[in-house]
Amino acid sequence: MIILIVGGSGGIGRALVNRYASEQPEAQIYATYRTSRPDTTPQNVQWFHLDVSQEDNVRALAAQLPKVDVLINATGLLHTPDKLPEKSIQEFDPDFFNDNLKANTLPTLLLAKHFAKALKAKRPTYFVALSARIGSISDNQLGGWISYRSAKAALNMALKTISIEWRYKLPNCCVLAFHPGTTDTALSVPFQKNVPPGKLFSADFVAQSLTDLIQSKQASDSGGFYSYDGSAITW
Ligand SMILES: NC(=O)c1ccc[n+]([C@@H]2O[C@H](COP(=O)([O-])OP(=O)(O)OC[C@H]3O[C@@H](n4cnc5c(N)ncnc54)[C@H](OP(=O)(O)O)[C@@H]3O)[C@@H](O)[C@H]2O)c1
């Protein structure tokens, strides 16, 4: 089993790396980091430097990994050092919007383009991206956070479109969007005080939910959007 965790140094990404490394000691695990490579790492994990928004970086990594069984993109962005998500359209800023698309939408498209060959196999394979319920158009009751919402909605559309194209081209690949719930990582820190008791999950819990979900799904489930509790989310 060959597993690639893109964004393996992020909060959820790191927990996924550790979970797979302990659950599947015989697996070869590849993980990527952008800013800093974690100091301690399980034995069966090999790290690569990757800026996943740069196509030449993604192409070069794909050239090194000709076969992948499970690819999870755990990268993303909600806020920057000087910008929080918008409360109203008056706060909309084109640069922040573009940052959101670049971090939350573009990487999955590049990964699908360059890893399609590695994921094409007679055995089951998985292409999974961390999305967010907030990217569901039908579930949107609150408004706000317009750049992140739009970027995750675009990610969802991209995943659905890829799943349809791959139904014939990669018939054994299952393409999934995953909502982790509010998870205790750097990404959610500015918003954690509003989370109801019991609804702030540890990254380890979320990693287990996702690995369990992947194990329970097959190619016929491709094109689905699932929550941490295994329930389907409407687009
Ligand atoms: N945490 C939550 O409550 C929550 C809720 C819903 C959805 N999600 C989604 O879950 C995913 C993981 O989030 P998280 O909570 O683990 O956040 P996190 O701890 O902030 O990790 C995000 C990671 O993405 C990496 N990244 C961003 N742009 C990148 C790029 N161009 N190239 C390579 N790496 C890049 C960051 O790398 P650097 O360290 O180098 O910046 C960081 O390691 C995201 O897609 C997020 O939208 C999270």
Short description, anyone?
With about 240 residues, the protein is of the alpha/beta class.
Outline the structure in words.
By secondary structure, this protein is of the alpha/beta class. It has one domain (2-227): Rossmann fold (3-Layer(aba) Sandwich). Helices cover 37% and strands 16% of the residues. It has six helices and seven strands. The protein has helices at 11-23, 55-64, 94-104, 106-119, 146-169, 203-216; strands at residues 2-6, 28-33, 45-49, 70-73, 125-130, 173-179, 224-227. It has a seven-stranded parallel β-sheet with strand order 3-2-1-4-5-6-7, with helices on both faces. Strand 5 (125-130), helix 5 (146-169) and strand 6 form a beta-alpha-beta unit. The two termini are 31 Å apart. Pfam families: adh_short (PF00106).
